[in-house]
Amino acid sequence: MLLRNFFIFIYLSITVFLFSTLEATISLWLSFFGNALILTFITYYHIFIERRYSPFISTYIVFNYLFFLVAPLAQISEFNIMEAPTFTHHFPFSELTFIKTNGLIAIFNIVFFLFYVAGKDYIKLKKQIPTRKSYSLSNIFFFIVLSILVLIINYDFFLDELSRPSWLQSTYSVSQLLIIKKVLFLLPLAGTILCIDYFKNSNINTQKWIIASAFLLASISLLLLFKNPLTEKRNALGPIYLLLIFLFVPKLLNSNVKSTLLLFVVMIIGFPLSQIFTHVDYGFEEILSNPSLLFAKNQLSEGYMSLNYDAFINIGVVMEHVEFDGLSYGYQLLSALLFFVPRSLWVAKPDASGLIVGNHVIDHYDFYFANLSNPYIAEGYMNFGIIGVIFMAIVLALSIVYFLTWLNSSNLFKKSIAFYFAMHLLFLLRGDFTNGFAYFIGTFIGLYLLPKVILAFVNLFFYKKVWVQKS
């Protein structure tokens, strides 16, 4: 109870500060305040009422708080001091657009919450019965060998990723990047999961314990080689590293308040504080003589004007795009659902929504960069208007309810995929949906389907038994 009260105190303190310092018209102020009340109710339910562990809602709350409250409110403070208020991609600030955007967010949050609660209460999670151990040290060793082979075969690709700056586009195709980075490079993580499961479910002697520990060290070393800040973007590293924490130190993330507090501190407090230092305009001597310069007015809010925090305002871009060009009626969504179909075979394949948003600000506001984010909410509006917003909210709620059953499974691979999806929601909700969906499907294949096929093959042809994992 103490930790829950501590979190709510931080949450409410920041919220009160945001609204007490917001300089806006009463209608704009009320539109944000209304969404803050809805999100606060969801947060209270998640922290104090919800009995099931659901890191999905923790991520959902933190995303909404950061991208739909903190960031746009900070942006308004910047707009107030501009002669011609425009965002970084030159899209002009409009009070009416912001109010309409808040309306769409409110509709989405209400529908999502109602269907989540109804769906969660409808399903009954079965009591998990411990299953017989089916993994062996040979299984783990096989995954380590496969991981090393993947490194050897893709050594040139690995060196290219290691040396290529994040802003420079890869010379490899999108399909190659997806298969290698999101599927094959996850084999060491699958080996790590096997090791953890081996320790938990086996009565092992000292010799086997030492061998398993060596295999675990090898798997983690290979994983860190494949997945590190030099070879992977932070939005992909975050879910993997948080999954490792969940697997190795579950007590740090085994309750709703713990997962919410951790994400809240990292995303809403940690990043902005680090931003103060990384975006400061003063020299070391000036700061040393006057430390208050670190917290100069607008120093923090300026960082929220970057494209990293364009989710809220891009909903407005999508509304304008629909006003100019009309709804897609589901055609644009095919770029996500059929992401695996190459453009060489499907010339008329629709663009990802982020590219559509980028092209809109290029065509109408003389911007220069095309591939922008597009929030999950805007995906629905772009395709079916308000009906699409409601539809996407229902789909998300039911998807989370489904993965709740996986999170409570005795199958550690299912549990890992479910937790990964919970952390991946930050990327999926920010958008665009095509990339978020494709990346998750790649991870789903690399961390669940491929290991399942490999283990079945190994046990069938090498050990004359079929791998069976009850869940």
From TrEMBL:
Q: Which InterPro entries match?
A: O-ag_pol_Wzy (IPR029468)
Keywords of this entry: Membrane, Transmembrane, Transmembrane helix
Specify whether Transmembrane helix is a keyword of the entry: yes
Instruction: Name the residues that span the membrane.
Output: 5-22, 28-48, 60-77, 97-119, 140-158, 178-199, 211-230, 236-253, 260-280, 381-405, 417-433, 439-462
Full protein name: Polysaccharide polymerase
